[in-house]
Design goal:
single chain; alpha+beta; three-stranded antiparallel sheet
């Protein structure tokens, strides 16, 4: 299977799909937040008391908050940041 890259700005994943991807990666919503070049600070997403639901609400409203890319392969799903991580995933 060819790797599939989630193009979060063209077609943001639904909340359900994002939760599925997070589960497959073993990550929380906070783990995939992009801080630079996004409304991260303005939205107060650095507040450790924010629930996963609140973070998911922010991601749904501002898909640019998703750290990219999320790559899906037969070997698994990974947040491929740094980009070299993709080579580990596709060579497994």
């Amino acid at each position: 299977m060819q790797p599939s890259i989630i193009e979060y700005l063209k077609t943001p994943p639904s909340r359900a799909r994002l939760l599925e991807l997070l589960a497959q990666m073993g990550k929380s919503p906070r783990d995939i937040l992009r801080k630079n070049g996004t409304p991260y600070a303005e939205l107060g997403l650095d507040d450790p008391s924010l629930s996963d639901d609140k973070i998911l609400d922010a991601i749904e409203a501002h898909p640019i908050l998703i750290e990219r890319p999320i790559v899906v392969t037969d070997q698994g799903v990974r947040l491929c940041r740094p980009k070299e991580t993709v080579f580990e995933l596709i060579s497994a």
